[in-house]
Amino acid sequence: MELPNEYKKPPTSLGEWVIAVLIKRIPLIGLIMLIVWATDKSTDPEKANWAKAELIVKLILFAAFMLLIAIIGFGVFTNFANEINWSDFD
Q1: Distance between CA atoms of 35 and 30, rounded to whole angstroms?
Q2: Which terminal residue of the chain has fewer beta carbons within 10 Å of its beta carbon, N or C?
Q3: Cβ atoms < 10 Å from Cβ of 58
Q4: Element (DSSP H or E) covering residue 28
């Protein structure tokens, strides 16, 4: 019985993981590299799955942040709207 090719190669080394994490932390380049690692067919499957998971977490956090900003913005707007004397604009 022969093993599939993905099991024949050695696992990703510690040094490669450290470099990947450091690159991921660079603001714009990290996001671009996560997209590249997640979509490139030649990337190690371990790293590709890790990049996909990171992108999903970033998307969830971005959506939560946008929702929080919208809620705060709506609250501030309604507070200012209640303070304005609208008859001054007639």
Answers
A1: 9
A2: N
A3: 14
A4: helix 27-39
Residue 9 Cα distances to 2, 3, 35, angstroms: 13, 10, 23
Short-list 67, 63, 65, 57, CA closest to 31? 57
Contact 34, 59 (CB under 8 A): no
Pair of tokens at residue 27: 């603001």
pTM value? 0.76
φ/ψ (deg, to 5) at 18? -65, -45
Q: Which two tokens stand for residue 71?
A: 């809620």
Return the structure tokens found at 1. 């019985």
Name the residue among 36, 32, 31 with its Cα closest to residue 57. 31
21-74 pLDDT tens trace = 999 999 999 999 999 999 999 999 899 999 999 999 999 999 999 999 999 999
